[in-house]
């Protein structure tokens, strides 16, 4: 058996193979044995018809097709392992020649994770500016006024700004304590938003300069994920059937999917870039860290059993590990940003 491995545009790989008849014929016995299980003959229990008997009732074409499937699987697995291909999506198979006493020829086309040509991501991160965030007194007073409005009585009266009002809101002894607590909360909120903005800018700029051919399979998968998230958002936030939403928006699902194309490609590229950086920085997430995080997530549920009912345990571990690896990688990139001090 001989095969060739060729790279195609858009991160596709082509595997072309030719299997000599002498090698291909070795699949004949098992192919007939498996097809025999489908034969129903009087005098034999279902699935127990001897292959030598069943072969009389199986067409030559059907046997060749079964042999071809086995040969394709073996060659495909061999090529994937020998070339360390990171497969995404289902392979497309094209049979080029299938005839008795002739070499079997076929080709397989499949998407693989692309090779990423990363820019100097440390230098890019160093040039991103971290903004200093502060909380003005007016923001605190605006929050207090919002709280007062939310406590408006049935006759429209708004509570006065007094220590008694502060005590009615929680464990505060005075308005000064309330103001200090609100200011601290607003500060943390702003710092969190700035951290998210900073990380997004870093990754956006690195991805923009990175070079990669994004597989169409990943773009299509992300487009579908975006559509699913929109469908869920419409249901939970707007309390509306998605079909009704589409009708009001005068859009079809296909039109929405098409409109997601550019954004989906950007998201996939950022994901691939982050993944590649994590490998280069040798980011490791230990099983203990994953278990600890899963326990923390499960604490939001009434019991571990409730969490397991909502999430498949193995998928939850895989998902959690991915999130933690991304978080550690972003910590590294954020660490390259120069201090404002």
Automatic annotation (TrEMBL):
It holds the Pfam family Trigger_N. It is an enzyme of class 5 (isomerase). PANTHER family: TRIGGER FACTOR CHAPERONE AND PEPTIDYL-PROLYL CIS/TRANS ISOMERASE (PTHR30560), TRIGGER FACTOR-LIKE PROTEIN TIG, CHLOROPLASTIC (PTHR30560:SF3). It catalyses: [protein]-peptidylproline (omega=180) = [protein]-peptidylproline (omega=0). Residues 175-255 form a coiled coil. Belongs to the FKBP-type PPIase family. Tig subfamily. One of its GO terms (cellular component) is cytoplasm. Its main location: cytoplasm. Keywords: Chaperone, Coiled coil, Isomerase, Rotamase. It comes from the Bacteria. GO terms for molecular function: peptidyl-prolyl cis-trans isomerase activity; protein folding chaperone; ribosome binding. Residues 1-145 form the Trigger factor ribosome-binding bacterial domain. It is found in: Cytoplasm. The keyword Isomerase applies. One of its GO terms (biological process) is 'de novo' cotranslational protein folding. This is Trigger factor. Residues 174-332 form the Trigger factor C-terminal domain. Its EC number is 5.2.1.8.
